[in-house]
Specification:
By secondary structure, the chain is an alpha/beta fold. The chain has helices at 2-9, 49-53, 63-74, 98-115, 125-130, 161-167, 169-185; strands at residues 28-30, 40-44, 82-86, 119-123, 147-150, 153-158. The longest helix is centred in the middle third of the chain and has 18 residues, at 98-115.
């Protein structure tokens, strides 16, 4: 919507120099009318072809996205105040490079600054790298399932739905537990959206 475009115009990201300047984008999905009401932000890598060919553009609309939505609905995460967005807002037909991620993540950070959520959920290695939470020579398996601090906001890392979709059983079981953890973290099972802070945090 226009509110997201306005924020991105204010973000100072240099889109004019980006390789994806002429690519279609999918910015964000939320059930909140005001960004200040968002409690949890989910961040995936970039829009898929299915996302940008939908009208209007969507997020996680492809087959692998259904894996995310399956557990998003199962654990009632759709009932909390959420926003889903991308680390890179435009579709890319090739693997994202660090320059593109570094340029576009400024837009993502601007959205988070407006939301001031209680929890950020990073899905996959590129969002984890973009947030500076995945050191070199580290794989996603070694940091998923942990809470880190980013700008004093609790930030949880899990697998990208593409990886879960392709590897099936084992990764999906882990992903399911991670989504359940997120729901419990937000106290969704109680019908209240009170945030729990009495757990160990990785710094």
């Amino acid at each position: 919507g226009s509110i997201y475009l306005m924020i991105i115009k204010e973000s100072f990201a240099d889109c004019s120099m980006c390789d994806l300047l002429n690519s279609k984008s999918s910015i964000a999905e939320s059930n909140c009318k005001r960004l200040e009401d968002v409690d949890v932000v989910f961040i995936v890598e970039s829009p898929s072809k299915d996302d940008i060919t939908s009208e209007p553009p969507k997020i996680l609309s492809s087959d692998y996205g259904q894996v995310f939505k399956k557990y998003f609905e199962l654990y009632n995460l759709s009932k909390c105040n959420y926003l889903i967005t991308h680390m890179v807002l435009c579709n890319s037909t090739k693997q994202l490079n660090e320059e593109t991620i570094d340029r576009c993540k400024i837009n993502c950070f601007k959205l988070i600054d407006k939301c001031k959520p209680k929890l950020i959920v990073l899905l996959g290695s590129n969002p984890a790298k973009g947030f500076g939470l995945m050191p070199e020579n580290t794989n996603i398996a070694s940091i998923r399932g942990k809470i880190f601090k980013w700008k004093n906001i609790d930030t949880f890392i899990t697998y990208h739905p593409v990886y879960v979709f392709k590897t099936k059983s084992n990764a999906e079981n882990i992903f399911k537990k991670d989504m359940e953890f997120i729901a419990n973290r937000l106290n969704i099972s109680t019908g209240k959206n009170n945030y729990e802070k009495n757990v160990d945090v990785q710094k």
